[in-house]
Amino acid sequence: MAESPQLIVALDTPELDEALALADRLLPEINYFKLGLSLFCAAGPQAITEFKHLGAKVFLDLKLHDIPAQVAGACRVIGAYGVDMVTVHTLGGVEMMRAAKQGLTDGAKEASLEIPVAVGVTVLTSLGAQDLRDLGIKEPSKEETRITGQVSWLVSKLAVLAEGAGLDGVVSSAREIRTIKSEIQEVTDREFSIVTPGIRPLGSSADDQKRITTPERAVRDGANYLVVGRPITSADKPKEAALKILEEMSKAIPG
Questions:
Q1: Which of 86, 140, 158, 232 is the 20 to 30 A CA-CA neighbour of 73?
Q2: Is-catalytic flag, 237?
Q3: Phi then psi for 77, rounded to 5 degrees?
Q4: What is the homologous superfamily of the domain 6-248 according to CATH?
């Protein structure tokens, strides 16, 4: 039986003490935290160690993107850290994604740890169709694909490549979840997770996100992990805000 969707709180701050204090306020109800570039660049592996000491799960969101050998080496190191999930960029290509998964596997096995979940970043939720056009990415013709929409087409294509490269899932906005699920089911029956950022509770600001949705809608569409940052971390009462999101998520779970 598949696990219920999980809430991950994004701690996008360079201050380790601040991040730990916030996590301490949310535990034990919330025990999965995303550590991003700012915090990792400021505190390095110590941040991971401190969060693991709290008994928390760690989603290390570095969005690795380099030549395969470099990514493999980095992932081998990361695999020994004891993190639970890691991101790489799908635009790095199939060979790079395979190298990332192998590196994580080797590093975790050498440290006698569980292999982290490896997920590929498809199209950032801060980007829309016009941004892709600005980058020179054109929408395919109807003859090339049955999927309409420039962003959906690219996201689903990258998701299929990620699955073929052995990754365990992808990061995408909730708007593409159904498309991804449909495309993946055509090529495999193995479990493939969808990590969904850009989650905004009812009535909250979109901030700098362009492809957003509510917690309930994301779960109904099939998201396995919901990543939420500012609606929780900037709230006057972070735990109450997090529990409200869990309540919204539960509305979409049968039973």
A1: 158
A2: no
A3: -65, -45
A4: Aldolase class I (3.20.20.70)
- Report the run of H or E that residue 233 belongs to, with start and end: helix 230-233
Cα 127 to Cα 114: distance, rounded to the nearest angstrom = 33
**79 backbone dihedrals φ, ψ, rounded to 5°:** -60, -25
Give the C-alpha distances (Å, rounded to integers) separating 73 from 33, 100, 141, 165, 251: 24, 8, 39, 17, 42
Residue ranges of the domains in the chain? 6-248
Average pLDDT over residues 76-94: 97
Q: Which residue has the tokens 């380099």?
A: 66
pLDDT digits (tens, 9 = 90+) for 22-54: 999 999 999 999 999 999 999 999 999 999 999
Q: How far apart are CA 242 and CA 227, in angstroms?
A: 11
Dihedral sign, Cα of residue 5, residue 161, residue 191, residue 65? negative
Task: List, for residues 154-164, the tens digit of each pLDDT value.
Answer: 888 899 999 99
pLDDT digits (tens, 9 = 90+) for 185-222: 999 999 999 999 989 886 555 454 445 688 999 999 99
Q: Using CB atoms within 10 Å of the CB of residue 61, give its burial: 0 to 12 exposed, 13 to 18 middle, 19+ buried.
A: buried
Q: Which of 34, 52, 57, 63 is catalytic?
A: 63
Listing DSSP states for 29-54 in one string gives T--EEEE-HHHHHHHTHHHHHHHHHT
Q: Look up the pTM and report it.
A: 0.90
Can you state the angle between helices 238-250 and 16-26, rounded to 10 degrees? 50
